[in-house]
Specification:
The structure is a single chain. The protein is of the alpha/beta class. It folds into four domains: 218 residues, Vaccinia Virus protein VP39 (Rossmann fold, 3-Layer(aba) Sandwich), CATH 3.40.50.150; 67 residues, no CATH class; 64 residues; 111 residues, no CATH class. Helices cover 47% and strands 14% of the residues. The protein contains 23 helices and 16 strands. The strands form five sheets. It has a seven-stranded mixed beta sheet with strand order 3-2-1-4-5-7-6, sandwiched between helices. It has a three-stranded antiparallel beta sheet with strand order 11-8-12. Helix 2 links the parallel strand 1 and strand 2. Helix 2 packs antiparallel against helix 19. The chain is globular and about 60 Å long. It starts with 27 loop residues before the first helix and ends in a 6-residue tail after the last helix. The structure holds S-adenosylmethionine. S-adenosylmethionine binds next to loops.
């Protein structure tokens, strides 16, 4: 470990993931469902951005100006290179540790500060630095997004992480970190399989260790092999954040607060009987044995009245993201519930044209069939399942389209030269990112380069040939050119059937 890394893994870089919860727009629906006012976000901050995919998406596709840091220079350089391709004016990227970044005197006050996958993996000193930063720099009414490993959910399996760390600590520097991670998993599995008494306490721990072997090694190193790793009870993080004058707002996903999907009747009764809001969160984590929380916290809190709430909802515009046939009436979280077709069908009948629909208009169109509470509940559920998205206002869409499409073009071009593409493309229409697999990206690249649809398969096949790659069908590499073209042609037809039009509607590439 180098001195700047403070015991944090720095010999392998992090994955190129996208985390929608880091998008300030993600708060809109859960906030309204909790009757909370949603702040306008002008300045936003991300601490520990990893490869900066989420950061770049949100800077390019949203209105806020971003300020962000990650002390790993490889991460910061990657993020900066992406930003340079889109619009570098919309974000400040630093490669400073939190101790240095949080003391900068050129940062504005923030409406939103986000940290994903950070809180549990840094030292107590760094947590204190962040709390102090939030206290000084988060505006009144501003929002903190923080995710963290939670107790009691981690209590039974924490020994697994401890053993992984010990084996990694005593591993040889001659081997790569990837090899050491693989060895640590294998050795942890061996020890646990003989830890009979421990297995009686935590019967699932072995199964869980075995599953690690299938996960991305770089992700595992960042998740489990840092010097610091501290799962926490809700009450402990609440105590820390109260020093920055924050109160708990809600989960980042409405589904995580939707009682019908979480609790059985007795558990619901217990939750309803628990009046104190902090104690309710603790009880929730015990009832569900929560292992990971992703929450919003606010500085200053009041509740909207019924009239204000309706007005806020009526301003929103939504867009259906999935083919209607793929929308399930069943939702499973801790429990499975069935959505009423009598309520959902009239809404989907309207949304299935894939146009943008204003929620105020939907209230009028659905009057007599679906009331306000039912409508907002359905929208909130569909949004938390990523089956529906909120649309940004017209001015914002016009202002961010160019930077977003430039970012996407860079990602699409990357797909044509890299084996492992970044599978997330940004939408100026919603301000978020959506998954497009490699071949889908190459078809979009063909579109962006003005190649007629009839030639897309040949075009993509040319890219694969340059990289000495072939298609795989049923686990078998296709050697024959005709087989490759047939496989690509089938994928193209699937893409054109829905996702291509969706990409155009989302403004991912110019039409
Ligand atoms: C688990 S990764 C999460 C990355 C990103 N937030 C995401 O979810 O994709 C944690 C990141 O925090 C960075 N980091 C850890 N400690 C830090 C510190 N003290 N100062 C700045 N960055 C830090 C690491 O380099 C790493 O990229």
């Amino acid at each position: 470990m180098s001195s700047w890394s403070e015991g944090y893994v720095n010999n392998v870089t992090y994955t190129h993931g996208y985390y929608p919860n880091l998008n300030p727009r993600q708060m809109i629906i859960p906030f309204l469902m909790a009757r909370l006012p949603v702040p306008k976000v002008v300045n936003a901050c991300e601490l520990g951005f990893g490869q900066g995919v989420s950061l770049n998406v949100h800077a390019a596709a949203g209105r806020a100006r971003w300020y962000a840091t990650d002390f790993n220079p490889a991460h910061a350089l990657f993020a900066q290179n992406l930003a340079d391709k889109a619009d570098p004016e919309k974000l400040l990227i630093a490669d400073q540790g939190f101790n240095e970044f949080c003391r900068r005197d050129d940062l504005p006050e923030f409406d939103f500060i986000g940290l994903h996958g950070i809180w549990s993996w840094i030292s107590e000193d760094n947590r204190r630095i962040i709390v102090d930063f939030v206290r000084r720099k988060l505006k009144l009414g501003g929002v903190l997004y923080v995710s963290y490993n939670t107790l009691p959910g981690w209590s039974a399996h924490a020994p697994m992480r401890h053993l992984l760390l010990q084996y990694n600590k005593y591993s040889s520097t001659v081997h790569s970190q990837e090899e050491n991670t693989a060895n640590a998993i294998a050795q942890t599995e061996t020890v646990l399989s003989h830890s009979h008494v421990l297995l009686q306490n935590a019967p699932d721990i072995l199964n869980r260790t075995q599953k690690l072997a299938q996960q991305d090694r770089n992700y595992l190193a960042h998740e489990y092999l840092n010097q610091d790793w501290q799962p926490m009870y809700f009450a402990d993080i609440e105590k820390s954040l109260s020093e920055a004058k924050l109160s708990f707002a809600c989960s980042a996903r409405y589904l995580e607060d939707f009682a019908e999907c979480l609790y059985d009747d007795e558990q619901r009764r217990l939750m309803e009987e628990t009046q104190n809001p902090s104690l309710r969160q603790t009880i929730k984590d015990f009832l569900l044995n929560t292992q990971f929380r992703s929450d919003f916290w606010i500085k200053g809190r009041y509740l909207l009245n019924e009239e204000e709430l309706r007005r806020e909802w009526a301003k929103l515009t939504v867009l259906l993201l999935k083919p209607r046939a793929d929308i399930s009436y069943q939702i499973t979280r801790h429990r499975t519930i069935q959505l009423s077709a009598e309520l959902l069908d009239p809404l989907l009948d309207i949304l299935q044209d894939y146009e943008r629909h204003n929620v105020g208009d939907l209230m009028v169109q659905l009057a007599g069939k679906v009331n306000f509470a039912q409508l907002t509940n359905l929208i909130a559920l569909l949004a938390s399942l990523e089956e529906l998205a909120l649309v940004q206002d017209e001015d914002t869409i016009a202002a961010v389209t160019e930077s977003t499409q430039k970012l996407n073009l860079e990602l699409l071009e990357r797909s044509s030269t890299h084996h492992n593409p970044i599978v997330h493309l940004a939408s100026p229409v919603t301000g978020g990112a959506y998954t497009f697999w490699r071949m889908e990206q190459l078809f979009l690249l063909a579109h962006a380069r003005g190649i007629p649809q009839a030639q897309w398969t040949q075009y993509v096949w040319g890219i694969l040939q340059n990289l000495n790659q072939v298609m795989i069908r049923n686990g078998e590499a296709l050697q024959d050119e005709a087989d490759n073209l047939a496989e690509l042609s089938q994928l193209k037809d699937q893409f054109v059937a829905f996702k291509y039009a969706q990409a155009l509607r989302l403004g991912i590439v110019p039409a």
